[in-house]
Automatic annotation (TrEMBL):
The keyword RNA-binding does not apply. Residues 15-120 form the Disease resistance R13L4/SHOC-2-like LRR domain. It comes from the Eukaryota. Keywords: Leucine-rich repeat, Repeat. Pfam families: LRR_14. This is Disease resistance R13L4/SHOC-2-like LRR domain-containing protein.
Length: 140
């Protein structure tokens, strides 16, 4: 389901009833928050909420056990939920261009993570140190 670039301000709760959904793209809208219905979307493999106005991510994203690609870049995130450590199938995590100062050490538990982009954040530690701690494949 691709609803990118539609000036959407809120994700409708009906999206949570699309239990067979595999891809969800809400990029380049005006979302300021995300709902908590994620546990219903057990087959979701790809979630893109880049280029919105998100200030936080719900802990319930951690229930997306089969999620492989998560793009939350270009928002206003200052923290990442600890529940992201539950996304054991995650291959790609893009958090670039946010307001992140710290990257949770628990992301190192994501053994399948191959691509991690955290550039353009005011990180307290050098990006190369974060990359080496989180995954093998790095982007600067």
């Amino acid at each position: 389901l691709d609803v990118s670039e539609n000036e959407i301000r809120e994700m409708d709760h009906l999206v949570g009833s699309l239990i067979a959904l595999r891809e969800l793209n809400f990029a380049r809208n005006y979302l300021t928050s995300l709902p908590t219905f994620w546990k219903n979307l057990g087959f979701l493999l790809y979630l893109n909420v880049a280029n919105n106005q998100l200030t936080e991510l719900p802990e319930s994203l951690g229930t997306l056990r089969h999620l492989q690609r998560l793009d939350v870049s270009s928002n206003m995130l200052s923290t990442l939920p600890l529940a992201l450590q539950n996304l054991k199938e995650l291959i790609l995590l893009d958090v670039h261009n946010n307001r992140l100062v710290h990257i949770p050490p628990s992301l190192s538990l994501l053994k399948n993570l191959q691509e991690f982009n955290c550039e353009a954040n005011p990180l307290a530690e050098p990006a190369n140190k974060v990359y080496s701690r989180v995954c093998l494949d790095t982007e600067f």
